[in-house]
Amino acid sequence: MRKPQGLDGGLTNYGDRDFSRYLRRSFARSMGLSQELLGKPVIGIAVSGSGFNNCHRTMDELTAAVSRGVLSGGGLPAPFPTISLGEVFLHPTSMMFRNLMSMDVEEMIRAQPMDAVVLIGGCDKTVPAQLMGAASAGKPAIQLVTGPMMTGRYRGERLGACTDCRRFWAKYRAGEVSETEVSEVEGNLAVTAGTCAVMGTASSMACITEALGMSLPGTAAIPAVHSARMVAAEETGKAAVRLTQQPITPDEVITEQSAENALRVLLALGGSTNAIIHLTAIAGRLGIPLSLARLNEISDETPVLVDLKPVGEGYMEDFYAAGGVGAVLQELRPLLHLDCMGVDGHTLRERLDGPKSWVDRKVIHRFSEPISSSGGIVSLSGSLAPRGAILKRAAATPSLFETEGRAVVFENVDDMAKRIDDPNLEVLPNDILVLKNAGPLAAGMPEAGYLPIPGKLARAGIKDMIRISDARMSGTAYGTIILHVAPEAAAGGPLAIVRSGDRIALSVAEKRVDLLVPEEEQKRRFASWSPPPQPDRGYAALYRRSVLQAPEGCDFDFLVKQTAEFD
Ligand code: FES
To answer: What is the DSSP letter of 130?
Structure first.
């Protein structure tokens, strides 16, 4: 068992260890801490509050509550700042900075003298970044999420970010609601602190973090403003101190088995497609491959059980009241690896053998009475996506699943923004919209995969069309949308040479998406294709040089743990 080293851990290198220790202690005393506290195990608290991150508005309160827990458990709390990523405040896309935040978290955990760390995050990219960093740093770590927002009200209707943002925006584009109405809605979509109120990416990540065992049982879904959220923070602080006495490191919690459990929970939730990328990246930090083939196997045998937006009806506050992740795990029990260890020191079997809580079956269905018998997400392959693509079938229109159609191509996000509402755009309801050059290399992989229905079709009442891209989409979005096409266009994938008028075939039954262009013609087009130019300085250059494709979680090549299977 590793002994906590407290402030004596990882000494600054002056060539004289005793001097380093002496200097550190004298400077630590300038913070006004007693000798007694300075001798305790140190619990770092990775704090990611920011004036650019509404989802982390309660960070100060949470940090105080974690600190209380650490003190009462017999440790010394040491909050430290890291980068924060507020989803809607970052250009060109928060995804581009997830790896940067993960590096910040990893290096600060490693460089500073802490025996364990509490990671406080919530907004989409922050939790994956923190888990990736902590997995690589290797010290005992425990995640606390900020928790979801409560819903707002508009003319008697409940509203939550951000599925309802999209729903009302689509109605506005179709001319069904006025500008006044849409701006009234704007004031009622995100009404409390916390992360998006539906089963979007942040909520999906919170739930799969609990399923992985990296956060305390029962904490994923507690609303941000609920008093129980602060109690969870305090308990998390205490648990972190216990982790210094009985160390459990992330590699003991995040294993191939626990990653599969997390994937099953994601599928049963009808959760976000982004979570596939993030889970792959987190597992990749420990050399655990998550293949799209395995995703399909698991998806075929895992039912959708949870009735939340964007796939169903409810919001995260309903999910919490209905029983949360624990109730989902109970239903999935026959399919789970029960020996997986959590940061609380208990196996999943021990958790599920404990007392059962009441479950609201309107929100969390029984395994025997699922919402749908197969998982919410499926991977596709075929000549348009030789290394795979993702479809959230739970949020798609089944009548479009077996289709052949004509491609209407947009070269990049700007091209799409310019032409999508052009009354002269040649597009019919059964065409397939294709967006290129929005993958990780080309654009940092923005959430541009939710291509709007072209204005003239939206106004004619068209609600869904097949849309294909190398981009991602928000976890709060819905539609028949094929994402994460790999290799992306900028990496020379077949998407690069698709032209308007080409035929594309989709078969969800066969899990295929094919470009029906003869190979000879494809070769001819590739002969005149060249990759987009590369940025030459700063983080953008590092990013472009190092980012991997979606099937590798879009991590940097030098951060993934290399194993035989990854090589
Ligand atoms: Fe932060 Fe949705 S914007 S979770």
So the answer is: H
Ligand 1 pocket check for 196: Cβ under 6 Å:
yes
Give which of 456, 459, 476 is closest to 177, Cα–Cα.
Answer: 459
Report which residue type is found at 259: A
Torsion of CA 307, 186, 193, 45, to 10 degrees: 90
CA distance 52 to 530: 37
Cα of 151 from ligand 1 centre, angstroms: 14
Cα–Cα distance for residue pair 120/268, rounded to 1 Å: 25
Report yes or no: 283 and 254 within 8 Å, Cβ to Cβ.
yes
| Residues 138-176: tens digit of each pLDDT | 999 999 999 999 999 999 999 999 888 988 998 998 899
Q: Is the CB of 552 under 6 A from ligand 1?
A: no
CA distance 287 to 289: 6
Q: pLDDT at position 275, please?
A: 97
Indicate if ligand 1 lies below 6 Å from the C-beta of 202. yes
| CA-based end-to-end distance of the chain | 33
* 189-235 pLDDT, tens digit each: 999 999 999 999 999 999 999 999 999 999 999 999 999 999 999 99
| Atom of ligand 1 minimally distant from the CA of 474 | 2
Testing ligand 1's pocket by substitution, the residue of 97, 123, 163, 198 carrying the most ligand atoms inside 8 A of its CB is: 123
Measured between alpha carbons, how far is 114 from 45 in angstroms, rounded to an integer? 9
pLDDT confidence of residue 176: 93
**Distance from Cα 197 to the centre of ligand 1, integer Å:** 9
Is the CB of 550 inside a 6 Å radius of any atom of ligand 1?
A: no
Helix, coil or strand: residue 218:
coil
Which domains, and CATH codes, for the chain? 40-150+192-352 (3.40.50.2300), 152-186 (no CATH), 378-532 (3.50.30.80)
The DSSP element (H or E) to which 44 belongs, if any, is strand 42-47
Query: For residue 201, which atom of ligand 1 is closest to its CA?
Result: 4
Measured by CA distance, the residue closest to atom 3 of ligand 1 is 87
Please name the residue whose Cα sits nearest to atom 1 of ligand 1: 123
Most ligand 1 atoms within 8 A of CB, residue of 87, 127, 472 to mutate: 87
Question: Are the C-beta atoms of 436 and 495 separated by less than 8 Å?
Answer: yes
